[in-house]
Design brief:
alpha+beta; Double Stranded RNA Binding Domain; two-stranded antiparallel ribbon; two-stranded antiparallel sheet; 36% helix; RNA polymerase II cis-regulatory region sequence-specific DNA binding; zinc-finger; DNA-binding transcription factor activity, RNA polymerase II-specific
Length: 55
Amino acid sequence: ERPYVCEDCGKGFGSPAHLRQHRRGHAGAKRYRCGRCAKEFRCEESLQQHLLLHT
């Protein structure tokens, strides 16, 4: 069970500590860019989810 969910990308975590660690990745600059539409993301997981929209 993963009751702690990131509000930015929807990814779930089993503990609040893991969620906090993950959220630090959202606080930084947007480092991941979609090669099809140039939309930018802070975490790779969000980019991967976005790429599914292009398929």
